[in-house]
Write a structure and sequence with these properties.
binds zinc ion; Aminopeptidase; 14-stranded mixed beta sheet; alpha/beta
């Protein structure tokens, strides 16, 4: 078998992180050039195209959503004045339904951590009908040292805000409000504010249920909300630490007028295939992946405004391309087919990977393994390797 040549990896990294590539922003010219470069390398290796219509490119339709200042967000109790929350200081919110305008006027129900996890015998919903409601919930997962409860201290998917929004939408809720508490989130409000201002990208909707209001509120605003309902925020946080927690309607409504700027755009995953040599096993695939996008260029920033992203993730792409070349030169192909996929929009929230997962070039059940390279620092010989998620695979 051909040997991996580190100098070839270096050459790919140099080109992909060159200023001319302008930081490989998703939906920007530099990102598109990177995709074409990678597709060209796959073609030169003699690999089969595994994208759309016999090409190496798989189109990924996306939508940018920017909250508009015309948005209003208020808490309305059964008596007393409504409380209008201030954007960015008291709340952040996105309309995941990708509509320019949506109205929400719905009862708020507190659902603790908002987790339904049968394998840990944990269910915050307890079968409550939350259709059309707005769900107030905590971030992260119930703290535990017990490996049988949410993997002990390790964070499982149930602790992530993406899961909480998804679960709320699956249950028919129209909105979710996450209470920010620094110790629970492990980062301060500024992080929430900074990562929730300006445009956010989503995959174009494909029928999955989404929330009109996907939001966070500041702990002080949550305190005020609990008070409107005659409750104490510290008490309701404590209540959620137990398996016997039950959802609690707050007798407070969220009245929101969500106004968003909607910007459709597209980018591409780059996919190639090396057919396997075994007549049966070639129907299965091993996948190698690496995202090619980085943060692009910020024209409004003075000075050096290009995020070159040599480490993140020109390195992974260089490795992917060298793996592809090496495998393509092998005297005999491996028994299983190999899929090489360089994905887009990782920095926007793993959108290229999500799209690839929903539209795999080989049926998902026949992909035996995916080895992803991301942000590989060129710091000499590695002495140890840590594989996150290794406890969930037999590989
Ligand atoms: Zn990365």
């Amino acid at each position: 078998m051909q040997k991996i040549d580190p100098e070839r990896i270096r050459a790919h990294v140099r080109f992909l992180s060159h200023d001319l590539l302008e930081g490989r922003g998703t939906g920007q010219r530099g990102g598109d050039i990177a995709a074409e470069y990678i597709a060209t390398q796959f073609a030169l290796d003699g690999l089969q195209p595994a994208g759309d219509n016999g090409t190496f490119l798989q189109k990924v339709p996306m939508v940018g959503v920017t909250p508009d200042p015309a948005t209003t967000f208020s808490l309305v109790g059964s008596s007393g004045p409504a409380k209008d929350l201030k954007p960015l200081t008291e709340y952040v919110a996105y309309n995941e339904t990708q509509q320019p305008e949506s109205d929400v006027d719905a009862e708020i129900v507190y659902v603790g951590y908002g987790i339904e996890a049968p394998e840990y015998d944990w269910d915050d919903y307890k079968g409550a009908d939350v259709k059309g409601k707005v769900l107030l919930m905590l971030v992260n997962e119930p703290p535990s040292d017990d490996p049988k409860l949410f993997n002990g201290r390790a964070l499982t998917y149930y602790g992530r805000w993406t899961y909480k929004y998804e679960e709320a939408a699956r249950k028919g809720a129209v909105g979710a409000i996450l209470i920010h508490k620094t110790e629970m989130a492990s980062y301060p409000w500024e992080v929430v504010r900074n990562s929730n201002s300006g445009e956010k990208s989503y995959l174009k909707l494909e029928g999955t249920p989404k929330l009109k209001v996907a939001s966070w509120i500041h702990l002080e605003a949550a305190r005020a909300l609990a008070n409107m309902a005659g409750m104490d925020v510290d008490k309701i946080i404590a209540d959620a630490q137990s398996r016997s927690f039950h959802p609690a309607p707050l007798d407070v409504r969220l009245k929101a007028h969500m106004v968003s700027k909607i910007r459709p755009f597209e980018s591409n995953n780059v996919i190639a295939k090396l057919p396997g040599s075994d007549s049966k096993l070639k129907n299965e695939a091993i996948m190698y992946t690496a995202h090619y996008d980085h943060l692009g260029i910020r024209p409004d920033m003075p000075g050096d405004n290009i995020y070159n992203g040599a480490n993140d993730n020109a390195t992974g792409c260089g490795i992917l391309l060298e793996l592809a070349r090496t495998f393509s030169l092998a005297a005999q192909a491996p028994r299983r087919s190999i899929i090489f996929a360089s994905v887009t929009a990782e920095e926007q929230g793993l959108l290229g990977s999500e799209y690839l997962g929903k539209h795999p070039p080989v049926p998902a059940g026949r992909i035996a393994l995916d080895l992803n390279h991301d942000d590989v620092p060129p710091l000499g010989y590695p002495e140890e390797v840590e594989v996150s998620g290794s406890e969930r695979t037999t590989f």
